[in-house]
């Protein structure tokens, strides 16, 4: 299943089956994004790998503040 998650000022496409995510643009509603939704979305992609256009990869690590 593919999801679009709002995290901070960005939109990310997330594939939970493959545990990967990609940047899909700016979040036009970032000012209305609640801390709770932002935090839940960060927890959701914790451990997922971001794939950059040039092929580089980075694992998302959520740190509780």
With strands numbered from the N-terminus, the spatial order across the biggest sheet is: 1-2-3-4-5
Beta-strand share of residues: 35-45%
Stretches with pLDDT under 50, minimum 5 residues: none
Number of domains: 1
Largest sheet: 5 strands, mixed
Question: Count of DSSP helices?
Answer: 1
| Structural class designation | alpha+beta
Shape call: globular
Number of DSSP E strands: 5
Give the % helix: 10-25%
Gyration radius, to the nearest Å? 11 Å
Mean pLDDT comes to: 95
Distance between the termini: 29 Å
Helix and strand sequence: EEEHEE
Kindly summarize this structure in a few lines.
Helix content is about 15%, strand content about 40%. By secondary structure, it is of the alpha+beta class. It has one domain.
Polypeptide structure, described:
By secondary structure, the protein is α+β, with helices and mostly antiparallel strands. It has one domain. About 15% of the residues lie in helices and about 40% in strands. It has one helix and five strands; from the N terminus they run βββαββ. A five-stranded mixed beta sheet has the order 1-2-3-4-5. α1 links the parallel β3 (about 20-25) and β4. The protein is globular.
């Amino acid at each position: 299943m593919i999801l679009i998650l709002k995290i901070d000022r960005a939109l990310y496409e997330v594939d939970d089956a493959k545990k990967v995510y990609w940047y899909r643009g700016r979040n036009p509603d970032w000012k209305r994004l609640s801390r709770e939704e932002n935090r839940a979305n960060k927890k959701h992609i914790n451990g997922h790998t971001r794939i950059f256009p040039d092929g580089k990869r980075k694992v998302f690590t959520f740190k509780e503040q």
